[in-house]
């Protein structure tokens, strides 16, 4: 096949710019962001197509090899070519420096603290029901009011006045106190589990839950069973989220 010649921008440069624009499109325009493996696959196909295009329609030596040789060897003394050589001379060590800097300037991260999300409670805590969750509305309202008072005397400092886990001490804990306003907390947990976690706190968790960084104290040493059950009633009443039951 007879090779063709075109005036204007050199074909090699035109193809290189097209590949660069195609990469920027895949990297920054396409949403959701593509994983690196997919970008690499598309770029490999694009490069293969570009090589086929150049070899079919152009003389590779004339459109690619000779311009590079002329540019680097100083065969062209024009201002653009000369400035480009200086720019390349400065850019190459900067690229190497930046790559080395990125490689060795890693942000120090604390070691991973693996833990289970919801450890299983002991047998004696399974299948429990809140004895204060009764049908009599007046009695239930009184229990909720008692739970509110208990919460704001003991739990507000960590779990916050809005029950969102943003109390005045919350920022000092990792993990942060539970956010009861999150629909993925109370509706996903059983009443007996909540009662157990409140009762035993972080230090009362079973061995299989180690390591567990919960800073919650052992409330069974400070609150009665009735007070802990009433707090659970208040959590549900305030947030509108009902914990799961054994039914």
From TrEMBL:
Instruction: Extract the InterPro entries matched here.
Output: Cyt_c-like_dom (IPR009056), Cyt_c-like_dom_sf (IPR036909)
This protein's superkingdom?
Bacteria
Reply yes or no: does the keyword Secreted apply. Answer: no
Print the keywords alphabetically.
Heme, Iron, Membrane, Metal-binding, Transmembrane, Transmembrane helix
Instruction: Look up keyword Iron and say if it applies.
Output: yes
Classification via PROSITE patterns:
CYTC
Cytochrome c domain residues: 142-239
Entry's transmembrane regions = 12-30, 36-58
Q: Could you tell me one molecular function GO term of this UniProt entry? A: metal ion binding
Name listed for the protein in its UniProt record: Cytochrome c
Please report the organism this UniProt entry assigns to the protein.
Candidatus Manganitrophus noduliformans
């Amino acid at each position: 096949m007879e090779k063709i010649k075109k005036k204007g921008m050199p074909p090699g440069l035109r193809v290189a710019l097209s590949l660069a624009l195609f990469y920027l499109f895949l990297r920054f325009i396409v949403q959701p962001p593509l994983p690196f493996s997919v970008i690499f696959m598309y770029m490999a196909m694009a490069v293969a197509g570009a090589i086929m295009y150049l070899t079919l329609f152009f003389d590779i030596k004339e459109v690619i090899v000779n311009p590079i040789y002329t540019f680097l060897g100083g065969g062209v003394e024009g201002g653009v070519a000369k400035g480009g050589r200086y720019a390349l001379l400065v850019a190459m060590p900067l690229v190497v420096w930046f790559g080395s800097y990125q490689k060795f300037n890693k942000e120090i991260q604390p070691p991973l603290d693996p833990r289970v999300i919801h450890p299983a409670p002991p047998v004696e805590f399974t299948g429990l029901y809140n004895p204060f969750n009764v049908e009599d509305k007046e009695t239930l309202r009184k229990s909720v009011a008692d739970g509110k008072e208990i919460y704001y005397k003991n739990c507000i400092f960590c779990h916050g006045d809005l029950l969102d886990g943003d109390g005045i001490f919350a920022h000092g804990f990792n993990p942060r106190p539970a956010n009861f306003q999150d629909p993925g907390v109370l509706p996903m947990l059983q009443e007996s589990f909540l009662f157990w976690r409140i009762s035993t706190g972080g230090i009362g968790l079973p061995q299989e839950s180690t390591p567990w960084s919960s800073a919650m104290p052992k409330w069974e040493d400070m609150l009665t069973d009735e007070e802990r059950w009433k707090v659970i009633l208040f959590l549900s009443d305030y947030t509108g989220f009902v914990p799961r039951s054994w039914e």
